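Feature request disguised as a bug report, sorry. It would help if multi-protein outputs had a clear separator. Right now it looks like this:
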Amino acid sequence: MQFGAFATRAAEIEDEPADLETVSLVRDLFLESGDDLAVVARFVQGRVFPAWDDRKLDVGPSTCYAAIARAAGPNVDSDDVEDRLADLGEVGDVAASYEFGGQRGLAAFGGGGADAMTVASVYDDLSTLAATDGEGSEGTKLDLLFGLFNRCEPNEARYLARIVLSEIRIGVGEGTVRDAIAAAYDVPTESVERALQVSNDYGLVAETARDEGTAGLDGTTLEVGRPVQAMLAQAETASDALEEWDEAAVETKFDGARVQVHWDGSTVDVFSRNLEDVTEALPEVVDFVREHCDAPAILDGEVVAVDDAGEPLPFQQVLRRFRRKHDVAKAREDVTVELRAFDCLHADGVDLLDAPLRDRHDRLASVLDANVSDRTLTDDPETVAEYEARALDAGHEGIMLKDPASTYSPGKRGRNWLKRKPDVETLDCVVVGAEWGEGRRANVFGTFRIAVRTDDGYEGIGKVATGVTDEELDDLTDLLRPHVTTESGRDVTFDPAVVFEVGYEEIQPSPTYESGYALRFPRFVGVRDDKDADDADSLDRVERLAGLQ
């Protein structure tokens, strides 16, 4: 498929306000995609690789702007691109406003030349870009992007820029793609949904629906080494659980980082909640699984930091290990972590997603002979309260309440898993902006604007400036600097990428912020490296918490 044809279709989809018509347009795009179907199914969502694939383009706005400027001609620089961005408001429109191709005679990098780009060639170049690492990689990435933009017509440039920065913004979400696959290949939506849960790969599922139909989709299985989204919990009370279920499975809620462990009998892979491969950072988890897991399996659990006596340490200690990419041995001496497994998705060749929780836990205990999370089955509120008291006394975060009959639903947040914490509340908020500090803090971000998730994006709920040490400000500035999109005086805006855990005293109605609420006395608790912006707390949760005050 020509990339120009994809861009034309993307523009039609973007201009269509009706959801049903959008699904029809995406369906037609799939039917026209030919051998490029898998890539198109990801591109239309602004993705280059499957969600489980840990490859990343790792291209920040500044590199993208520099590539656009170079392709636009010798009289354009990055500042000009940023000025035009301030006027137009969106990087795709900026890229489309330039006439590229003037430097084709220079034998542009990245496959330059007058030949029209295809979806496949764009994907190949972006794959090469993602594989570029090490010394000099920034320059190589800039050359590759220049070569791509230099070959673009305006509409192609619009969607290339958006794909590169993961900002496709054409109104196509995961549900739209799911429904379009079902419509294009006349297969049940439920079968598509199920295959997506199991594979975490829209491209694979689209091809399976086309080539193998319903039988192929229903036959899609988990694959050891290919992570899937974690099942999620929501905050409720013990009485809520016991009113709905015959009994509740009560477990410890660890103050750690969620992981999914894959063991095929020879290789251990460890993935974070946002599907990042963290295997190299956690060698003791690898060693533990090799020693204690007696069959190929996919395990769900938490990695917790412990002191010399085996007592739990705060969550921030775990993040020190997750962030570590170099000198892991030294980090291991400073912070010891252990796996606490609480679920089993696959064991010895058998997928267990459809098995009830009680059976999955039994299977977990049969394949793993240590560190399996303890649980109590009860219908008695007093028993729940006693279990919670013991968990808190032991230094853990709280308890989980789970329906023993529930199946495992990857990526779903429902009422089958409920979490109980102490009364002190925190919110996981997206960092959308900041202000540079003053005086001795002039070179770091000093105040952070935070937002909560809505159906249409993110809406502000306050500013955080307390609870952060000088050392943490340095780290946070390094963490957030690559996500800067605009800068005006001391004020900076970010791509929604980094999540802060924010403590607060109260949620108040407020006309100051878009959400209609403000956090009273907000304070920085930590960075949720295990979450991305899509996992942040929602405005719905804020409204629910405000109503309980």
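(second protein starts here, but nothing in the output says so)
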Amino acid sequence: MGQPSVRATTPPPEVRRIATEAEASELAHWLLMPGRRWPVVVLTIPGEHDEPFGDPDEIKQAVGGLAEVVLMPTSDVSWAFSRTMPAMTQVYGGAGRVYPVDHAWVSDPQRSRLRFAYSLHDRKRITDQLISDALQAAMAAGLVEPRTRRGAQQRSGRVRGIIGPRALVMFDDMSVATVWEELTVPGVPLDRVLAKGQQVDGSYDPDSRRLDLRAAVRFADAASARSRVQEAYQAGDVVLAQVVAVTDEVVTVRLLPSLSVEIGRKAVTSNQKDTLAGLFSVGEVVACRLVAVEPLQLRLDDVDDEEVPKPPPSLLPGGPPWLRLPEPEIQPQAAAPPASSFPKGAPPLADVVSDLPRQATPLDLAQRLSLSQPSEIARRVDAIPPADQARVRQLSNELAAERATRKALAGELEGLRARAGELEAELAQATRTIEHLQTRYRGADLARQRLSKQLRSAQDRVDQAARLEGALFLDPEEQFRYEVACEWAQRIPAAEKADKPLAKYTLAAGFLESVDQLEGISRAKVVAVVVEVLTGQAQHLPGRDAHALRTGAAGSPYVRRSDGAICWRVALQRESAAARRLHYWRTQDSYELSRVALHDDYRP
């Protein structure tokens, strides 16, 4: 059977069956051909079966003209397909796969997920998975952009219930329609878009009985999403976000489906041994601190357990908040591995698969076991003259033994399929456990950081009380100047004092108050950095990050007073949005210490 033409505008209307090795090879070349206009669903028939575990007709009915559906047996036919396809992109043994239009799956097979099925009990699961994958691939290819179809009707109804990725909507005339998760907001579960009893409006297609709500989705672009965030939140709020990407140094989260923010490791953990990829999983929901609204800045190291996040916006009018924190999970005790269900008397597995590649998978084994050709013994029996009864009996016994062996191998194959299903379930549970442990570790790390801050704050208060008790001057400015002079005398070696004298300086109104009121930094540290500034050392110390303030973004003018003085800032602390900075004015022949402020406070 030939492949569709690249110039064709719609996929074949029926399920296409691959019957020969040549057709399988043509299918592989078709999938790899540039210019293919629609996704292709390939569902395979497991060995020793005549029909697949999934339902190709239901898949085709669901995807309609958005995708092509192909059915292929597991035999020499699927081997021909596998030989042509790139590594890790093949499909056989009862599994299924959707091949998107975008060829990124060729180098990244995870973009074309392999969906497994091990028996007819998996029929609904694999069918639903392939439908979902196909519709998402069609969405990504731009085949289902919101538009008015011929015959579509604008209708209103109420959500009667949500079951997995489907919702039932009842209209006023008691007729019903379905809403499909894949055709609402990509990557968002349907129960985070709709709620039972919610009133909805959309475009109804009488042929498929689907209600398309995408035209009513709010905040579909970054500009409207950013505007909504600015209306709903303010700096300091604790908000929910979803992890969409993570590397060792950056975790990317989204406050709304179309609005993402990058958070560096400095805003996540102070433990240099942590890697963000080990702390977060894509898809999980986390609580963040909104540091600034314009531009958007988030932190993940400054949220207390008792703080309640602000409710996230709803994506449809009257809908639920689109994000929610997961419920705490009670971890079950690990169960002992199940006993083997392989039949007794089966030949050793190594004898059956001795010629398989070293990296062979259970699916490779399943395929190899199902490739037995029509029995040579049976053909020999047919060719024996009736008179040679002894020979016939001998060959009949051999044939019975071969059939028994084949039956045992089939039983072993079923055991392998069952074990593969168990391993897949165990993997899903292990993934959930990892995410749970990541959340617990982050909670413990946040508690550690909070205790460290409390300890520093307490120490600051102790230091301040000691200073007040041991102050040598009644005038606060005289006391500060005395401390600066003592720090300079102790810090600068005698041989260098002539080259590093203290420059002339004044204290701006409110400077000493800012030193006393700002927690999280000791007075001794402020005094030490003031000495570095007044001796000219701060300009050459990388840790001080000395630079002139600007009036706005990079390239804008520096902050300058009418007397020509320029405002500078140096770091008192590093690696935190709450890190303290020293602001001072630099004139031609002296300094004026302005105030101590937080990193994100850019006032002179």
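Even a blank line would do. Unrelated, but nice: DSSP finds twelve helices and 20 strands in the chain.
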